[in-house]
Amino acid sequence: MESQNYLGPFEGFADQLRDEFQQYGTVINFSKHDNPFDADLVMDWFYIIQSVKVKVYDINFKTNREQTLYLLSRGDMYDVVPLLDKQEHNLATEVLEAGSAIRFPLYKVREWIRAFPKFELLIYQYVAKQMRQVEELALDLSLLETKERLLKLLLHNFESIENRGVNLLSKLSHAEIASLIGTVRHIIDRHLKSLKSEGVLESGKGKKVEISNLAKLLKLLDESS
């Protein structure tokens, strides 16, 4: 693995661990619509996302409804579940935007957890972040109306752009956005059209979803809570 590859939250680690990253890491490129992290693969390999955008989701084949649990992007890791419990994790994955990830043998990552306390702490902090995210999703699906869930998603994406330089919603179809908040495309179409007419979002056609008035968005969120 080349030394200039992005290592996400592990960028600042000591030379010894960085040397092992270089020795054991392999850059893997993915194309759009690939299934990058098959359940069998993640029993043997661990990934740090460099540039690829991946949705992690489940689907009900009887109703054809799907729910996205995570959007993985630059700096994310997959899959911490079999890393920690050594059990299969049967979720579906799909590449939404082509790019790359660094792959490491899972046994080496477990060795690093035991040998480097700071590495162990980062892994557990990441697990906690994912737990909070799924907890928030479950509560939002149960307690909030669709428009409020959409407003929260738009605000979260704005914060991701500001803090990480990552636009999670870039190039996503309205159907993909709907899957993130547990609804369907035609409802998202209606709400996005309404938010554009209210001046919250930039008007225009296509997949671009961009906030034009953050103050209005925050006011709508406050009024709906």
Quick structural summary:
The protein is α+β, with helices and mostly antiparallel strands.
Highlighted features:
225 residues, alpha+beta, Jelly Rolls, Arc Repressor Mutant, subunit A, four-stranded antiparallel β-sheet, three-stranded antiparallel β-sheet, 8 helices, 18% strand
Amount of beta strand = 15-25%
Give the CATH class of the largest domain. Answer: Mainly Beta
* Series of secondary-structure elements, N-terminal to C-terminal: HEEEEEHEEHHHHHH
Radius of gyration over all CA atoms, rounded:
19 Å
At the fourth level of CATH, the homologous superfamily of the largest domain is Jelly Rolls
Largest sheet: 4 strands, antiparallel
Walk me through this protein's architecture.
With 225 residues, the chain is an alpha+beta fold. The protein has 2 domains: 8-115, Sandwich (Jelly Rolls); 144-224, Winged helix-like DNA-binding domain superfamily/Winged helix DNA-binding domain (Arc Repressor Mutant, subunit A), CATH 1.10.10.10. Helix content is 46%, strand content 18%. The protein contains 8 helices and 7 strands; from the N terminus they run αβββββαββαααααα. It has helices at 15-24, 80-85, 106-115, 117-143, 146-164, 174-180, 185-197, 214-224, and strands at residues 26-30, 45-49, 53-60, 65-72, 77-78, 92-97, 99-105. The strands form 2 sheets. Strands 1-7-2-5 form a 4-stranded antiparallel beta sheet. Strand 3 (53-60) and strand 4 form a beta hairpin. The mean pLDDT is 89.
